[in-house]
Write a structure and sequence with these properties.
Blueprint: E1 2-7, H1 13-21, E2 25-30, E3 35-37, E4 42-44, H2 47-54, E5 59-60, H3 68-77, E6 81-85, H4 93-96, E7 104-108, H5 120-127, E8 131-138, E9 148-155, H6 162-186, H7 222-231, E10 238-242, E11 245-255, E12 264-269, E13 273-277, E14 282-290, E15 296-297, H8 298-305
Parallel strand pairs: 1-2, 1-6, 2-5, 6-7
Antiparallel strand pairs: 3-4, 7-8, 8-9, 10-11, 11-14, 12-13, 13-14, 14-15
Length: about 325
């Protein structure tokens, strides 16, 4: 098929590569404008633009609201179908219907209608879901609310961070979108409305978040805190506000123990852990990164700071 591909995030790269490898003609990529990045502040292309350039695919980079100019670019390309993956902007009806087939499909990293929104993998981890997956759904006015043409499940590993899970879901989504486009091309695709339940009871939301998502409140249960550490990795990274400044928590796990939240219970348990009491149970801090320093084992940090059992971490 002749496809227009809309995406920006690195999550979109495996699906784009897979569609090209499957023999589809990606006639246009719509992606975010180049943005300043790094210490130099020089404008850098999105991951999708870099991939498109390697394949000789022209790019359209709208500034601001995606509207009439994008519609014209899509129609001029002769695209039959649109494929949207981690694009990051709402698509109005005229854009969604610009391909000659009159619609677009989206690769979404969850089992819809669970976790509609920008960060489904992070919220699945935070909630302690045993499994997640990828859904291919028709793009409609309601965010991630369109009928689903294909889905695939996968278990969530007990130690997976968001970065690891997201990369894996990107590969899973790449294979699934190729199958979905093939079914659309063959005329065998069957779109099924999402099972939202009475009063949308089955719908959960995963909105975009900021740095506050990684903040650890030691009055919360240890299991929840350990999940947040994984969900916030690689961004914004979990953090604790200590007396001498913030400290990132790169790895942690729930442990046994009781005490006042923030009380250090054990130092050096396991492989260099510092075990601290929480609102319910204890959290074993495994790997830390103090502000301005390199990552280190928690016990090594504790020795350097003379942190001992019975002391207060906060």
């Amino acid at each position: 098929m002749r496809l227009v591909f809309l995406g920006s995030d690195p999550f979109a790269v495996p699906p784009l590569e897979a569609l090209v490898a499957a023999g589809h003609q990606v006639v246009l990529c719509v992606t975010n404008p180049d943005r300043p990045k790094g210490r130099s502040g020089a404008p850098q292309p999105t991951a999708v633009k870099e991939t498109a350039q390697r394949h000789g695919i022209p790019c359209h980079q709208p500034e601001g609201k995606v509207g009439a100019e994008t519609v014209e670019a899509i129609k001029a390309s002769g695209a039959e179908l649109g494929v949207v993956v981690a694009f990051g902007s709402f698509l109005v009806k005229t854009v969604r219907e610009a391909p000659s087939l009159g619609f677009m499909i989206n690769v979404h990293a969850s089992l819809l209608p669970r976790w509609r929104g920008a960060a489904p993998d992070a919220y699945a981890l935070l909630a302690g879901d045993a499994e997640t997956g990828v859904s291919i759904q028709r793009v409609e006015k309601v965010l991630d609310g369109g009928p689903v043409v294909a889905s695939r499940r996968t278990p969530i590993g007990p130690d997976e961070t968001r970065g690891v899970l997201r990369a894996r879901l990107g590969v899973l989504g790449a294979a699934l979108v190729v199958e979905a486009v093939a079914s659309i091309a063959a005329g065998t695709a069957r779109f099924v409305d999402q099972d939202v339940g009475p009063g949308d009871a089955n719908v959960t939301h995963a909105p975009a978040y900021g740095k506050e998502f990684g903040q650890l409140d030691l009055t919360r249960p240890a299991d929840e805190l350990a999940r947040r550490v994984r969900a916030a990795n690689p961004w914004p990274m979990a953090s604790l506000e200590l007396k001498d400044g913030p400290m990132q928590v790169l790895a942690a796990k729930a442990a046994e123990g009781t005490g006042a939240p923030g009380e250090v219970l054990r130092v050096g348990a396991g492989e260099g852990e510092v075990v601290v009491a929480t609102g319910a149970g204890a959290l074993a801090l495994v790997e830390l990164k103090p502000a301005g320093k390199k990552a280190m084992a928690a016990a090594a940090w504790a020795r350097g700071k003379h942190v001992a059992p019975g002391s207060k971490l906060l």
